[in-house]
Amino acid sequence: MTLSTVRGEPAAVLAEAAARARAAESRERLRVRGGIALLGAALLLFWEYGLGFLVEPRYVSSPSEVAVRLAELVADGRLWGHIGVTLGEAGAGYLIGIAVGLAAALLLVAVPVLDEIAGPFLAAFYSIPKIALAPMFIMWFGLGLLPKVLLAALMVFLIVLANTMAGVRGIDPGLIEVSRVLGARGPTLVRTIVLPGAAPAVVASIRLTFSRAMVGAILGEFIAATQGLGFLIVRSSRQFETATVFAGIAVVAALVMLVNAAIRAVEARALPWSAGRTRG
C-alpha cells in the first residue's frame, strides 16, 4: 500500500460522510416541506367544508370564495393601489424605526448612566398597547400618511432597540475589558467589538420587524384612512363582505412573507454566519 493510497482513504471516508449528511439533510427538508403542504391543505379543507358547522358560514366565507374575490380585486386594479399605500407607509416606518432604534441603542451603550436613567421609562413605554396610541397619533398628526408612518416606525423602533441592547449585553464582559486594556475606547470599541458582537441580534430584529411595521401602518388605516389594506379590511368588515376581509388579510400575510424572504436572502449573502434570535 502506497503513501498516497493511505492518504486517500481518509479523504474518501470524509467525502462519503459529507454525501450522507447532504442526503439526510435533503430528506429532512423534503419531510418538512411535505408536512407544511399537508398541514396547509388540511386547514384549507377544514375551512372550506368543516368550519361552517361551527361558525355561521357567512361570517367565515371559504377559501374558494376568497380566491374568487381576490381575483376580482386584482382584475379591477383596486388592490394594487391599496397595496402601494400600505407598503409605502410600512416601508418608510420600517427604515425610520431601524435607524432611530440603532442610534438610540448605540447612545445608551456609549453612555451607561443614560441607559440606567432611560431604562424604566422604555420598559413602561414598551408595555403600552400600541393600538391605544393609534387614535392619538391620528389626532396629533392628521389623517394623511404621517401618523401611519410614525406608528410603523414606533413598532420597529422598540424591538430594534430592545434586541440591540440585549445583543450588546450578551457580549462577554471580559472581551470588552481586554479591548479597553489594549486601547480600544469610544467609537473604536463600538466599531470593533460591540457592533460585531451584537450583529446577530440586530440583523434578526431587522429581518423580523417588517411584520410589525405592517401592523403599525394597518392600525393607523383602521382608525382613519381612505386607502390601504387596513382601510379595505375594516370597510369590508363593516359591510359584512367576509370574503374581501379574508382576501385583504391573505394579501397582508403574503406581502410580509415575501419581504421577509427577500431580507433573509440578503442576510444570508451578507452575513452567512448570522443565526440570531429576536424578541418582540
Automatic annotation (TrEMBL):
InterPro entries: MetI-like, MetI-like_sf
Transmembrane segments: 36-55, 94-114, 121-143, 149-168, 214-233, 245-263
GO cellular component, one term: plasma membrane
Annotated Pfam families: BPD_transp_1
Keyword Transmembrane helix carried by entry: yes
Domain ABC transmembrane type-1: 83-267
Record localization: Cell membrane
Record SUPFAM superfamilies: MetI-like (SSF161098)
Protein's recorded name: ABC transporter permease
